[in-house]
Amino acid sequence: MKLTAAYHGGTRYDITCGNHRIVTDQPVEDGGLDTGMSPVELFVGSVASCVAYFVGQFCTRHHISREGLSVDAEWAMAEGPHRVGRIDIAVHIPHRIPLELKERLLKVAHGCTVHRSVASALTVEIKLNPHTASRVQS
User: Fold this and answer.
1) CA-CA distance, 51 to 116, in Å (whole number)?
2) What's the chain's average pLDDT?
3) Contact 5, 48 (CB under 8 A)
């Protein structure tokens, strides 16, 4: 799987993957033009939307309407190193859920792919120009 984040001026980077594009930028107070979510907002949004998807799939399997389903995410930054240190997720389902399904629903929510990816040891490898052949001139 592959996506590309490409520079589009100022602090804007567009992420493309297949036929899809997301604009990221920084808020005005951080030198951007606020033309899109910041990468941190997008990161937290990825967690929230993944939880929403998993909960929605659970609801469908158990004949619970997804109408009105929403997921809120609040986060706090941490230092040493500078990062998102905490994400609090609130799942809102405006329908009655049988007590025996509530715990199962929360277990499914915790199992979303993005949440599991950041909750486990994640390897991120960063290389500079990895496909550039190094040439030795003689």
Assistant:
1) 10
2) 93
3) no
- Between the alpha carbon of residue 124 and those of residues 79, 91, 121, 137, the distances in Å are 19, 29, 10, 33
In angstroms, the CA 56 to CA 45 distance is 16
Share of the chain residues as helix, strand and coil, in percent rounded to the nearest 5: 35, 25, 45
Residue 82: pLDDT band with limits 50, 70, 90? very high
Q: What is the DSSP string of 8-38?
A: -STT-EEEEETTEEEEE---GGGTS---SB-
CA-to-CA dists, residue 125 to 40, 66, 80, angstroms: 19, 38, 20
List Cβ neighbours of 56 (8 Å cut-off, separation of 6 or more).
66, 69
Residue 20 identity? H
Strand order in the sheet with 4-7: 4-7, 13-17, 20-24
Across the range 69-85, mean pLDDT stands at: 97
Looking at residue 133, its pLDDT comes to 59
Residue 85 tokens read as 């240190």
